[in-house]
Design a protein that fits this description.
There is one protein chain. Helix content is 49%, strand content 10%. With 440 residues, the protein is α+β, with helices and mostly antiparallel strands. The protein has a 5-stranded mixed β-sheet with strand order 1-2-8-5-3, sandwiched between helices. The protein is globular. Bound molecules: protoporphyrin IX containing FE.
């Protein structure tokens, strides 16, 4: 008797779009609408063409679990990034896989763990106070830019142990040119292209980081870098200088743009909902009762926690994530070939009416009992999930609470007229005009 051979599974439905650009123009402009439109047309698995390659998009919490946890061995994180970004950043944590990734993550984790970060509390408070006073003197600012400078100052002080001054300013300038080129098209390494400028800025940054590493090796300090220099793997080997330079570039990059984005959207929502703002302020007054913020207060701010989670849901700084497929697999009745990319979508998951009541509304109370929406794994994934969940999660959560507590107590912002809040979604979501406010 002859065996029955099952027909091969089909590829997912969808379109590869235009030659070369694929459907990049649609996704880049609005990743949520991109996913929702195609979900309505094709269902929760569809094919498209993004970042120069065929891509399968897998939608919903089960897809998130599949990609980020249960079947992550099928995927490469490195192969999910563009060649431009890889050439600039090298081998930092987000861009490595397998045993290499496990070794680095195990050595980095203790420096950013919830038990290590209270050491950065005072530094964060000092810097937010300095920046807030500067904003007050300026009278009006773009909050996105204000938060960007503040977050970068906190990142360089906490991660590198860098003091404010001319060296820090030059470093910040180079870093902003560098990060602007990360998502540029690959091109000549000339000053005329964003990629070329980023490459040259990267060369300067690498030289500065090498000097800083040498200085910290000679005189250890309490910074994240200080802890990374003391870390070792199972064989007792520490990071080499070259490994550290790449890791520091990733930590500085991943560690400030995201926080900048989320803080900006928190204020966008608070300024449009005075009752939520008033409740957040009342909570500060109750918990601090006129005194200064202390680390233990951060655990007593449920109202602020819910505001942050709701901003993460409605405005996740990254719309989702890509992986390269290393082994062909079947999902949802379709075949996804090796060499494609796959994408999970945080923006889509966070707006699913099956998971969230009136998902388009900013409603922090959805996280409070008895509703407790989003308390299931892979529903709220603004920080990713599974073994590669954001390694800076605790650091980010503390920083956002310290910054918001300080600002809620000391400053009033009022939206300026005639500005556009239209979101620019990629690479990290920001309002078109940067959220212009009067400061009082
Ligand atoms: C609001 C703030 C932040 C948000 C929303 C955020 C979001 C994310 C997300 C979504 C991922 C997972 C990407 C994926 O798997 O596809 C991630 C990973 C990562 N994040 Fe964050 N992040 C934030 C802050 C930070 C900070 C402060 C740091 C460092 C100090 C950091 C460093 C990293 C690194 C190194 C990874 C890669 C982890 C790995 O692959 O093992 N992030 N982050």
């Amino acid at each position: 008797m002859s065996a029955v051979v099952a027909p091969p599974l089909p590829l997912p439905p969808g379109s590869f779009g235009l030659p070369l650009v694929g459907e990049m123009n649609h996704w880049w402009l609005d990743p949520l609408r991109f996913a929702q439109d195609r979900h309505a047309r094709y269902g929760p698995v569809f094919r498209t063409h993004l970042l120069g390659r065929p891509c399968a998009v897998l939608l919903g919490p089960e897809a998130n679990r599949f990609m980020l946890s249960s079947h992550m061995h099928l995927f490469s994180s490195r192969a999910g990034w563009s060649p431009t970004l890889i050439s600039l950043i090298g081998n930092g944590l987000s861009l490595i896989d397998g045993a290499h990734h496990r070794r680095h993550r195990t050595m980095i984790m203790p420096a950013l763990h919830a038990t290590a970060i209270p050491r950065y509390f005072t530094l964060m408070q000092r810097l937010v106070d300095t920046h807030a006073q500067r904003w007050l003197q300026q009278g009006q600012i773009k909050l996105f830019e204000g938060f960007k400078h503040l977050s970068f100052d906190i990142a360089t002080a906490a991660i590198l142990g860098m003091a404010e001054g001319p060296e820090a300013h030059a470093f910040a300038d180079s870093f902003h040119v560098f990060s602007r080129g990360l998502f540029a098209l690959p091109a000549w390494k000339s000053q005329l292209t964003p990629y070329g400028r980023a490459w040259q800025a990267g060369t300067k940054l690498r030289a500065s980081l090498a000097r800083i590493i040498a200085a910290r090796r000679a005189a250890p300090d309490d910074s994240v870098l200080g802890l990374l220099l003391a870390a070792s793997d199972a064989e007792g080997q520490g990071f080499t200088d070259a490994e550290l330079v790449d890791e520091l570039l990733v930590l500085l990059w991943a560690g400030h743009d995201t926080i900048t984005s989320l803080l900006t959207w928190v204020y966008y929502e608070l300024l449009r909902q005075p009752d939520v703002l008033a409740r957040a302020r009342a909570e500060q007054a109750r918990v601090l009762s006129g005194g200064a913020l202390e680390p233990q207060h951060l655990k007593q701010l449920p109202q602020l926690d819910r505001i942050l989670r709701e901003a993460e849901r409605l405005h996740p700084p990254a719309p989702g994530g890509f992986r390269g497929v290393v082994e062909e697999f079947a999902y949802g009745g379709y075949r996804i070939p090796a060499g494609w990319t796959v994408m999970y979508s945080s923006v889509f998951t966070h707006m699913m009416p099956e998971l969230w009541y009136e998902p388009q509304r900013f409603d922090p109370e959805r996280f409070a009992p008895p509703r407790e929406e989003g308390n299931k794994p892979f529903h709220l994934i603004g920080f990713g999930a599974g073994p590669r969940v954001c390694v800076g999660l605790a650091f980010a959560q503390m920083q956002m609470r310290v910054v918001l507590s300080h600002l809620l107590q000391t400053l009033e912002f009022e939206l300026l007229p005639n500005q556009s809040f239209r979101p620019i979604p990629v690479p990290t979501k920001m309002p078109l005009d940067g959220l212009k406010v009067f400061v009082r």
